[in-house]
Amino acid sequence: MSKLIDKIWTTILYIISAFVVTLLLILIGYILYKGVGSLSPSFLFGDPKIGEAGGGIGPQLFNSFYMLVISLAISIPLSIGAGIYLAEYAKEGMFLNIVRTSIETMASLPSIVVGLFGFLIFVKMTNWGFTLLSGALAITIINLPGLTRVCENAIRASSKGVKEASLGLGATRFQTIKRVVIPAAIPEIITGVILAAGRIFGEAAALLYTAGMSAPSLDFTANITSKASPFNLMRPAETLAVYIWKVNSEGMIPDATKIANGSSAVLIIMVLLFNVLARLIGKKVYKMYSGS
């Protein structure tokens, strides 16, 4: 009887898993079916044409990647540092309880609330205005709690015996963390980074109030202090997700549906490519550190 019950529940779990995978494939397939026909070099690398048919998503696509790089450059060191502290150095007490409560509270904040906070602090109080840096800091606030917990769990899961062996051989605690703990935790940390990157690509609400909804033509020959320079952190930076929302809500482009479908397809493809590349890179880094 127990074997029969086990088989029934195993079958149910397989059916649920197959349903989730099928639902995901249908969703991705529908978006790609609707949008792939719009993809072309002029669409991917051209500038938008407000009020006219056609146009491209070049500035928005670049802004999404640049926002990804800047946000991760801020989030990853902070998250790994916080994870190391919580897993290796923190002692039970009031301060640790306050830190954990703060992380849990930040993780539950809606992105629109973070966007309004970023608008008040990074846009108004600093007088930066709508800038790429403001958007990157807002995204960092969203991603930091989840990425910190992933790093903490990954570091805790590192073999305790290996850490003790490293310390027993005369390595300092810092050397053990650097040479033993972090390399062992890299695959899980890479997974957390992948999730954070996906959040950056798909986030729109927080960026509406911080990075802005304008994407001027980018001049790669311009001085970095110029607003036209793509690498200037203090310029407005409309991302692809924000652009999809804008073309569907404002109705200023005749073929808005076609552009939104194409942009959605690009967004899905970029997220899939980043996930695959991140996993491949994570495996190579792990092999390099572990010597396997």
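Above is the first protein from milestone M3; the second protein from the same milestone is given next.
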Amino acid sequence: MRLLPLALAACLMPATVFAQCGGSFSGFVKDLKREAISNGHATATTNAFFKSVKQDPKVLRADRAQGVFQKPFIDFTRHLISQNRIDRGRSMARKHNATFDRIEATYGINRGVLLAFWAFETDYGAFQGDFNTLNALVTLSHDCRRPELFRPQIFAALELYETGNFDPRKTTGAWAGEIGMVQMLPRDILENGVDGDGDGQVSLKTSPPDALMSGGKMLSHLGWTPGQPWLQEVTIPRGLDLSKTGPSQKNSVSNWAKMGVQPRAGTLASGSLQASLLLPQGHKGPAFLAYPNFDVYFEWNQSFTYVLTAAYFATRLEGAGVYNAGNPDQGLSGAQMKQLQKKLQARGHDVGKVDGILGSKTRIAVQVEQQRLGLPADAWPTPSLLSSL
């Protein structure tokens, strides 16, 4: 489920003639070996690490079949969140209470946040993926869609192999190379792996304390601020300036309150905090204030719908009620969304890849065009917007 969180810069890769992707697979692997050796890894170790690697067409099929991300927020949450998942999450919180206490004391990460990731990534460890991790990483690096994301993970896996924490033949996980109960990439494991159970090993596949402590450290490393909220459901008044909404725009909580934004339950956070007002299905649907910690979610996953769902589920696990779904305007099908993205591109907007997914770039472009056309600028694309364009 997780989309790669590490937008690793190209500067991490050596400035050499090594091909970054494409060509014959065997030639690509030879280049990887030469690069590893040039970076100081022993020849024998490098050869042993890459000896069994194979291209995996199933990985490419999985990469191109992420249709679940085309679901709108309400459908997506109902797809991922069930009463059974909530009950199991609360049961896991009780079972691993001591570990969560340590995480909160050490890293300041709320248990609901980690429980939500644990649930969505692997259903609390039950389904961790059976793709050979090295094959997945090399296959995706050879593919020329996003080599800059995957290639550095191969060399991180090599470092784990050198310390005895990665088996090129037996280590398995998700199709995109993530390993363990909370699905961490090799570089994540190198930088944030924690021996949570004190057995001298970092075992993210079999040890909940290791996996959860490592996830907590990673979120802390990514910038989580202890003691601050991440998401809160709110209500919005009629006549609100909708052009001020969206994940890329922030305002102080006190200013949102002056504009009539109110919590659906409880009280708003400190007035000095900056927050974004999120309307995932427009001004007639659910509404949330996203606080600074919400931005950290995008370092874990780059899908707006997934991130908002994970953040919302974390609040549910900590006692929040079910959101008010409202009565949103009709959205677009996947095919219609692709048409919209093409029309937006034709008008000069950067929407990223034309994939039928309502991501952050598409939302920003939609909001601009809604303002131009005199429509409610809530970043929710409708058939009327599509026809207007």
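Note on the second protein: The longest helix spans residues 147-162.
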